């Protein structure tokens, strides 16, 4: 059975010369300090997104301790438990990715990158002040919407700034920088959740510290150019050329005489609509990545959002649970750095398959061990495997689609992981109550088997292919 092809054109209209030429010039850019600085700057903006997303698991013991939520509930869809908090997070992420992914396609990568971050930061501040479970869950849902928009925007933004031969490494570095937020939030939770400084619940301090820090985005955005591919697709060729010339000047690449004539008008293509992503050339890709995202979320978030709680269920105290979680969290930024050494040497789908297999194996080991050293080691290996799969699929599911629908299409397929993660909160809570930690990892293993089969049989090859303009 052959893999899905990706080199067909989007049947919207005849692509103008500008975007196609700019795509070719971007593909020919050599590595430069300026390009890597852009990767780091984008990643710094995404740092707060990861902080906000991952504090879910680390403040869970604090939410339980404060009496706002319980670890498990008698009802499957219990809205008084930690599972409901996880579900609210990912329900918001679903709305942001499925319904609002088009914003970055319509209004630009740079502006949505900025405003989405500020929107979910404001919602998190309000959430930190809630005193009822209903208010807590509602504002977590609102924050999740902003995070969902931000995730898709950063992926599309980064994809369009990097040549294919460096894109895997760029995403690996991007994830390494962003996920330094995880040990930071784990350390803050370990320190603050058990003590509650100044008589205020520790989990509230963890939320507010991230919100205050995110104001740095106003500085970061000043140094980020708009995507030249997005500008060209919207008829703003002079601006696109200006950005491209700056990129080429920074790398020492020769400037193409075909695109320096900034006065030449550019044809504007029709704005892509929602159903354009289901045209024959792209429908198989959309279906494939929907299935993939439905399953991969169980591996990533079924573990990440539940690490402290899973450790508690194994008889470890709250303080020790948060301490072990803090140690495991160091794998989040380190794993992508290791992956950067092979990120562009292998096809994305085979990296994903290998990582999924490792998640299953090390997850089962985690469920069986009780000795601290073995427990932490297996937790680190599960996290390392999750992060390897994460960088690979974030690059993969954006580069297979053309510029006109890149954010929208990747948002729609990625939203399936939000659906999965929404229900995984309830499912993991149920499995934890009925079958223990072993049952949770049995569920994760089944999901990883589906990931491996889908990617191995139908995953397209992307290595060395330029973006479709």
The largest pleated sheet is described as: none
Q: Average pLDDT value?
A: 84
List unreliable stretches of 5+ residues: 5-17, 256-268
From the helix content, strand content and strand pairing, which structural class follows? mainly alpha
Approximate strand percentage: under 5%
Quaternary structure state of the chains depicted: single chain
- How many helical elements? 19
Strands, count: 0
The coarse overall form would be globular
Helix content: over 70%
Terminal CA distance reads: 28 Å
Order of helices and strands: HHHHHHHHHHHHHHHHHHH
* Rg, alpha carbons: 22 Å
How does this structure look, described?
The chain is globular. The longest helix has 53 residues, at 406-458. The chain is built from 19 helices and no strands. Helix 2 runs antiparallel to helix 6. With 469 residues, the protein is mainly alpha-helical. It has helices at residues 17-27, 33-65, 82-99, 102-107, 109-128, 133-161, 164-178, 181-192, 202-213, 217-220, 228-233, 237-251, 283-304, 307-313, 318-329, 331-339, 348-368, 372-399, 406-458.
């Amino acid at each position: 059975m052959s893999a899905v092809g990706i080199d067909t054109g989007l049947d919207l209209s005849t692509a103008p010369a500008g975007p196609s030429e700019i795509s070719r010039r971007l593909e020919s850019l050599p590595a430069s300090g300026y390009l890597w600085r852009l990767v780091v700057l984008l990643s710094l903006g995404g740092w707060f997104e990861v902080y906000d997303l991952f504090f879910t698991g680390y403040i869970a013991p604090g939410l339980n301790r404060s009496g706002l939520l319980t670890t498990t509930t008698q009802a499957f869809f219990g809205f008084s438990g930690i599972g409901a908090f996880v579900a609210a997070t990912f329900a918001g992420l679903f709305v942001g990715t499925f319904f609002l992914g088009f914003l970055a396609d319509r209004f630009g990568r740079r502006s949505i990158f900025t405003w989405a971050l500020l929107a979910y930061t404001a919602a998190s501040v309000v959430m930190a002040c809630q005193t009822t479970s209903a208010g807590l869950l509602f504002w977590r849902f609102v924050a999740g919407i902003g995070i969902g928009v931000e995730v898709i925007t950063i992926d599309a933004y980064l994809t369009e700034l990097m040549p294919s031969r460096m894109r895997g490494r760029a995403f690996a570095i991007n994830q390494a920088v962003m996920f330094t937020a995880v040990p930071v939030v784990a350390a803050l939770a370990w320190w603050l959740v058990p003590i509650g400084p100044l008589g205020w619940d520790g989990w509230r301090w963890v939320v507010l510290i991230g919100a205050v820090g995110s104001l740095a985005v106003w500085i970061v955005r000043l140094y980020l150019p708009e995507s030249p591919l997005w500008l060209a697709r919207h008829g703003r060729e002079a601006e696109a050329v200006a950005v491209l010339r700056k990129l080429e000047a920074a790398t020492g690449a020769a400037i193409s005489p075909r695109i320096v004539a900034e006065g030449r008008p550019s044809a504007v293509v029709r704005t892509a609509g929602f159903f354009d992503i289901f045209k024959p050339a792209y429908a198989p890709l959309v279906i494939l990545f929907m299935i993939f995202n439905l399953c991969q979320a169980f591996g990533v978030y079924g573990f990440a959002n539940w690490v402290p709680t899973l450790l508690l269920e194994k008889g470890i105290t709250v303080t020790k649970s948060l301490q072990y979680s803090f140690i495991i969290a160091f794998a989040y930024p380190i794993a992508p750095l290791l992956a950067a050494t092979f990120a562009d040497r292998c096809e994305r789908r085979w990296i994903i398959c290998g990582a999924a297999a490792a998640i299953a194996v090390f997850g089962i080991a985690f469920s069986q061990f009780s000795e601290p050293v073995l427990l932490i080691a297996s937790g680190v290996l599960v996290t390392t495997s999750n992060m390897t799969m994460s960088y690979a699929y974030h690059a993969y599911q954006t580069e297979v689609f053309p510029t006109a629908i890149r954010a929208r299409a990747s948002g729609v397929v990625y939203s399936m992981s939000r659906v999965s993660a929404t229900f995984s909160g309830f499912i993991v809570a149920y499995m934890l109550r009925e079958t223990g930690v072993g049952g949770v990892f049995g569920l994760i293993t089944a999901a990883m088997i589906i990931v491996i089969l889908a990617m191995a049989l139908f995953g397209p090859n992307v290595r060395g292919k330029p973006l479709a303009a």
